[in-house]
Design brief:
61% helix, two-stranded antiparallel sheet
Length: 107
């Protein structure tokens, strides 16, 4: 508190008012950035939730691949649809996975 008094003790009333206005403007910008950040975080959460909802009701399965185009994630439905445990396919390329699949059953 003494540092604040020292900093502003030599200012005139007009200078103090200008400093208050500058501080209020900085506070307003900070609040705006904080609000924008919270809004962006909420929008991201809603987007993730929509994706999760769609993924959970999808009849098929979905996956993610890494930068080397190797499978890095399979949804929970992968095993139910393919009959293959996901851990046996993680780290494989599409070609490697295709080569491991059993031949198609005749109709």
């Amino acid at each position: 508190m003494s540092d604040v008094r020292t900093k502003y003790s030599g200012l005139s009333q007009d200078e103090l008012l200008q400093e208050v206005e500058r501080l209020e403007e900085r506070l307003r910008k900070f609040q705006e950035k904080t609000r924008d950040g919270l809004e962006a975080e909420e929008a991201l959460w809603q987007s993730q939730q929509r994706f999760q909802d769609i993924a959970e009701i999808a009849s098929d399965w979905f996956w993610e691949m890494d930068a080397d185009l190797r499978f890095s994630y399979f949804s929970e439905r992968y095993e139910a649809v393919t009959g293959i445990h996901p851990e046996k396919s993680l780290g494989k390329t599409r070609k490697e996975l295709w080569e491991r699949l059993p031949p198609p059953r005749p109709c």
